[in-house]
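Hi D.,

Good news: the full-assembly prediction came through. Inputs first.
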Amino acid sequence: MSDPIEFVMPSLGADMDEGTITEWMVGPGDAVERGDIVAIVETDKADIDIEVWHSGRVAEILVPPGRLVPVGTPLAMLDVTDGEAIPPAPVAAAAPAEATAPATTSPPPAPPPPAPPPPAPPPSAPDMVAITSPPTRHGPTSYGAGDSPATGDDGAPASRIAASPLARRLAGERGIDLSTLSGSGPDGAITAQDLAAVSARPRPVQPEPDRPKRDPAERMRRAIADLMARSKREIPHYYLAADIDLEAASIWLEAANAERPVKDRILPAAVLLKAVALAAAEHPNFNGFWLDGRFQPGDGVHLGVAVSLRGGGLVAPALHDADQLSIPDLMVGLRDVVARARSGRLRGSEMSDPTLTVSNLGDRGVEVVNGVIYPPQVSLVGLGRISTRPAVVDGEIVARRLVTATLAADHRATDGQLGARFLNTIAKLVQEPEKL
Amino acid sequence: MTDTITYRDALHDAHREALEADDRVLVMGEDVADYGGTYAVTKGLHEEFGRARVRNTPLSESGFVGAGIGAALGGLRPIVEVMTVNFSLLALDQIVNTAATYLHMSGGQFNVPVVIRMATGAGRQLAAQHSHSLEAWYAHVPGLRVVAPATVTDARWMLASALDDPDPVIMFEHAALYASKGELSDGGGPVDLDRAAIRRPGSDITICAWGGTLSKALEAAEELGSDGIEAEVIDLRTLRPLDDATIVQSVMRTNRAVVVDEGWRSVGLSAEISARITEQCFYHLDAPVGRVCSAEVPIPYPSHLEQAALPQVPAVVAAAKAAMNR
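Then the structure:
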């Protein structure tokens, strides 16, 4: 078996630099499959289901529920089975094992850019390890090579720290890493008394008390405020708008929906989303991130859809590879993601990696949406109300169903010329809905 | 003002008072009249109250317990004495299938206000068939209240509260307690049968005991005290329904617990109490819940083996120290 790897607190969006595990779905010894939801993380914006990106077994839970930790903090150790192709280097690894302090005591890394786990299976095992482990944390950890395969009689990892429930709870509350303590309790277990001795020590992880507890709605408001202020402060927006003729798409939709039960009806939004996704694939300069002073294209078109929440606020989870989805599949995905956003059951990957965002306020009756870009993305497409308006077609004034589409784009990444072509592509694609 | 009295006499006084206070009260059981009861609790009462109210019964537990239940249904307030819990098993059908069920099966129409007293426990070389602690068998059954007076004060006052209960009450008297003496608190009165009592306050560990194990727990607590460990001793008093609140509040303060049970460890009251502590105090526990119980054997006859089989003070001290890692 190869060395256990770290499962770290993911970044679930550019505005997230810390999070709290509210619930573990797995415990030490549990087998996990790549893509399994293993924990729920509470961020300022929502409770997010977190997936694991390796198959294997949970060796150890490092962060108990309730503790606020920075992005990148190791949350658990995994014995990976899909990484077994890489043989461990038992002798070489043994020495640094001691030197590498328990991970939570090292200074937390700066919040990494949203490093989206690739939706498609990554090419090889080493890449997968790199995805969840911040670059500074490769190699052996306190969970050294020497003891990695050891398990107890009951199959649980023998290296699980013996600590009383009270000690675990107090350690969580005080942000004390149990692996830094030695126990004086029954069978060498760490007890509350052992914690008392270290309570005065500087804490490896900045705990919650620094931050006044705010109610979730207030926290979400604050998170949106921070992010939107950052967007308007840093991103030089430019705005373009174009009316898109939806007559052909509407007729096509009516025919398509005629055969469908009401609950499976396709909404015009799905057609527009598909067109935006295809246009983004065709114009990659609008599909990605502005990071480290340069544009970095997205890996696939992951369409963030702005969803307003009933309690106030909004989230923009991703429809992954939206350009590859058929319109009916995209509709299913849209319904699913909206329902889960509103019930607080989004997954981490959905929160972390939209490559551009679509904001549709048409059903609220507005004509034009001039959006604010979601950093570090570089564009946002706004959709207004679909309405029947006078239009000139072949020299005649006729009634047509139109929608005003807008583009808010980052002028650092693109110029208006490109933006216009992007919008035109959307408008053109919608004219042939059957090809979408 | 306090008065020293034996547990036996305290029970005697309680019976006398009950017979005086309420015409509906009668005492029935093997040899309760002329002989005064196996443990002399009812000695002399038949002379004062007559053979109709202090009745000898045939040697048939199922018969006379059933008769007592019938009398309760008929409007009387019988106190049925069974010689030991071992023998009460012959009346288990009457108690479990009849007394415990009538209120529920009649849709609340018929309650069974019977008090069934029985001796329990070992320590006097009476061998396995007279020495077992089967309180858990009864504490398992909904419809019954199970109490275990451990002090002379509770022996004196619990009976009246048990008679006041409209439903069947099983009262366990540890046989080793009858001759024990204690101070009777003055001004005693009705006992709240829903509440356990803290017999010794402490901050380091909670020791749960009842009936015959209370004195051992208190003795162990004194010994622990001399080692600087302050044990809180809870007398459960009522084994069904258990007073979770008192136990939980104590363990939340002390973060450790030991249960002392003269019953067997497997599937017994100590298991139940330990489970409840773990369920309700898990994140307050600083050590596994300790249990000191009887050895898993029929209680032996030879004195040295009998004593070895029972929970003893050194074992309680050791369990508490293990939880403290001392």
